[in-house]
Structure formats: C-alpha cells, structure tokens
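Let us practice reading a record.
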Amino acid sequence: MLSQFLTVGQQVLILFILIAVGIICGKTKLLDQRAVKGMTSLVLYFVTPCVMIHAFQDARFSPDMLTKLLVTAVAGFGVHIGSILLSQLVFRDKDSSRRAVLKFAAVFSNCGFMSLPLQQALLGSEGVFYGSIFVAVFNLVSWTYGLVIMSGTLSSLNAKKLLTNPGIIGVFLAVLLWVLNIRLPELVATPVNYLASLNTPLPMIIIGCHLASAKFTSALKDKWCYLCIAMRLTVIPVCAMLLLYLCGIRGSMLVAIVIASSAPTAATTTMFATLYDREVSLSVSIVSLTTVISLITMPLIVGFAQGL
C-alpha cells in the first residue's frame, strides 16, 4: 500500500514541478494573460481531442471494450448525478450568485487538465481511454446542468454549443474511428501523437500561471469556500470510490474514475462565472485552492483506490 501512495505521490509531484514552471512564468510575466488564454485554446481545441483519438487508436475494438466504454460512461454519469444531489443538499447560501459558483465548483472536477496526465502516467493508454470517456460525460453535464445553474435559466441550453464543444467532437471522432476499426495512417497519426503528448506539460503550466495571480485572502475567511473544497477533494471522490467498488468496478477502470473524481475544481467554473456575471473572485479562489490542496489529497485517495 505504501509503495502505491509513493508512486501516485511521485507522479503528482512531477505535475507540481510543471505547475511551478507556470507559476514562475506568471510571476515573471514571461507568459501574460493573452498567452495563457491562447495556450488554453490550443489545449481545448487541438490537444484534448488528439489525446482522445490517440487513446482510442491504442485500444482495439471488441465487445469487451465496448462494454467497458458503456460501464465507464454510466459510472461517470453516476458520479456527476450523485455530486449534483449532494451539492443541492449542502449549499444553502442566500446569495444566488455565490450559490451557483459553489454548486458548480463542487460538482465539476478538472478531469481533463489534471486527470488525463495522471491517468497516462499511472495507467497508460488504458487509463486515458477511461479518462476520455469521463471527460465526455463531464462536457455533456457541464454544458447542460452546469450552464443552467450558472445562468439561472433553462433558456441558456444551446444544442449547437454542446455539439460543437471540442471535447465532444474529439470523443465522437475517436469512438467512430475505433468502432469502424480505422487506423490512422502514419502521416496523420504522428502529428496527432505529438499534439497528444502536449497534454501533460501545457495544462500544468496554464494552471501555474493562474495560481501566480491568485489571491487567497478572502477565500480563507469564507466557511462556504472551505465546505466546497472539502466536498470537491474528499467527500465526493471517497463516496464515488466506495460506491463504484460496491458496484463491482475494479482495477484500472476504478482507479481512472477515482483520479477524475478526486481532481480539483474545473477551470471551467471561472469561465462560466465570467460569462454569466457570477462571483468570479470566489471561483478563482476555489479553483486555485483546490489545485494546491489536491497535491496532498489526490495521492492519498488514488493510492487507496489502487490498493482496493
């Protein structure tokens, strides 16, 4: 068990070193907000879809793998639905703007930026396969339920935005090629693999740049912020791990889902908060604090999951 904790801790430490590079770049103004925004777009629109395509190209289609895909998708929806129900029960802040941010921040993890690199490091392409499915579920739920709670109205639902989301497009292409047993020619596969390999360093540097400008003072005085952090980093991942284990999910699938569930609050929280004039400062504080604290909580929870 100790060796598993140390293995996860080592991988998280590697990610933290990359985050530290981002902090240095942010503090020294080597990368300004415009550059960070451009890097974020590069990751969202090109790197993440390529990661998913690469993961599915490494997995041969079979009835067994299709079953694993469906089980992971159901488990992903289960984790999100359970998180939504918990957040509805817990967060009673009278300020609707703050309440929306707290609910969103508790439910949605950074399962793309923070989880896929760790899944790759610990589980290889199989882990990224499961992780990509979880990211697809995340995109579906965040662009439906997430959009509604942040906007405060059902009219904000937009099928076009959902269908043109790069994460959804990437999964659709990856699954289509996988089901049809189409292997990309080397001329295409090589650049896809090169872009996919950027998924570890770029997101970590981006997170570091955000941390460089984060202000934690107000958040440290907010009891609801502490509760949200506890929900996101401990309550939800531990409940998810135990329930999935009781449902018979084991091995790499369990570990991959636990990694995704134990990740810090999604950076999408701040994006949506900005878009709908919610408490942006609160969202930045929660994203930043959960990212820092997750460097301790993720190795513990994921290491325990590996030992089950």
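A brief commentary: The chain has a mean pLDDT of 86.
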